[in-house]
Design a protein that fits this description.
mainly beta; seven-stranded mixed beta sheet; 11 strands
């Protein structure tokens, strides 16, 4: 499985941005797809996740109510819609995939595949 993240950029506080993750060679529909982020000087943190074949979504506490994860199964792409962005959302955003059970979704080590990351900067 190869993951290609895109869509990052500069956005003003309060604005919106959507990042995408295209997954190639993804044949196992039980895979769990997730977004993590890493801000300068901080550890990587879980942002959002969704099972490829399901509808349940999961979010980190800091983004609940502002971010929405979704997937387009026909294009094997996962999206992260980010609204009401704050300066503290500034980070490199990574997509990840793997045979992950929901209870371990926040652990980086649970994911076998990672994209290269896309930078999101929230600043005026």
């Amino acid at each position: 499985v190869q993951l290609q993240a895109s869509g990052g950029g500069l956005v003003q506080p309060g604005g919106s941005l959507r990042v995408s993750c295209a997954a190639s060679s993804l044949t196992d529909r039980s895979y769990f797809m997730a977004w993590f982020r890493q801000a300068p000087g901080k550890e990587r943190e879980f942002v959002a996740g969704i099972r490829w074949s399901g509808t349940n979504t999961y979010y980190g506490d800091s983004v609940k109510g502002r971010f929405t994860i979704s997937r387009d199964t026909s294009k094997t792409t996962v999206f992260l819609q980010m609204d009401s962005l704050k300066p503290e959302d500034t980070a490199v955003y990574y997509c990840a995939a793997g045979r992950v059970i929901a209870s371990t979704r926040t652990y980086e080590s649970a994911y076998a595949y990672w994209g290269q990351g896309t930078l999101v900067t929230v600043s005026s």
